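Q:
My hope is that you can spare some time for a protein that puzzles me. I hope you can help me see how the letters and the tokens relate. Thank you; the sequence and its tokens follow:
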Amino acid sequence: MAYAFPPAWIPTLPIRGSSDEFPVRRIYCVGRNYAEHAVEMGHDPEKEPPFFFQKNPDNLVQTGEFPYPSATKDVHHEVELVVALSKGGTDIAPNEALDHVFGYAVGLDMTRRDLQAGAKKLGRPWEIAKAFEKSAPISEIVLASAIGHPSAGAITLAVNGETRQSGDLSQMIWKTGEVIAHLSGLFELAPGDLIMTGTPAGVGAVVRGDRLEGTVEGVGTLVVMVV
């Protein structure tokens, strides 16, 4: 097959203990999946089913640097547990959903908060706030076969050594299996999909020169410099 121009590269993530790479197909993100974060964003978490938005696979960044983006003066950090799928499907049963998980990683859902606020006010989509270049720093993937399926454990984000976000995976409103099951009723999931499962309270602005350190207990740590 001949292409009119060279096709785009396939974004990948490293796998701990392996020379293989995890090819990324799609990146789904769960909105407001921790009660305290929902409250700090002005919402009532008890009244909402899970909702989703997407980042683009080429938003991934593995360099350890987050370039401060254009068209914004208010970029926020959001640390998240990331789920990597090795099997897909539709209408997956909640009690079978974890069988589809390949592994887990630590991710940052970097957000142009001022642009998101403007989009919300106008009832518009969030892509300009969420799916911009380098907006998804994600660590290496740790195999589920090695660590199991974390349902509890600290999730934290420090900026320049000062803790900003601190929560526990047990505080997720919708648990990992429930998220996968619900999402599979909206989209056909496939191997290579990533799911960012939401962030605890404490999100805040970053500036150039900041050092971000996100940790999920039992999964790993992601260190990113804002440049």
Remarks:
- Residues 78 and 109 are 5 Å apart (CA to CA).
- Residues 12-226 form a domain with the Fumarylacetoacetate hydrolase; domain 2 fold (CATH 3.90.850.10).
- The mean pLDDT is 95.
- The two ends are 40 Å apart (CA to CA).
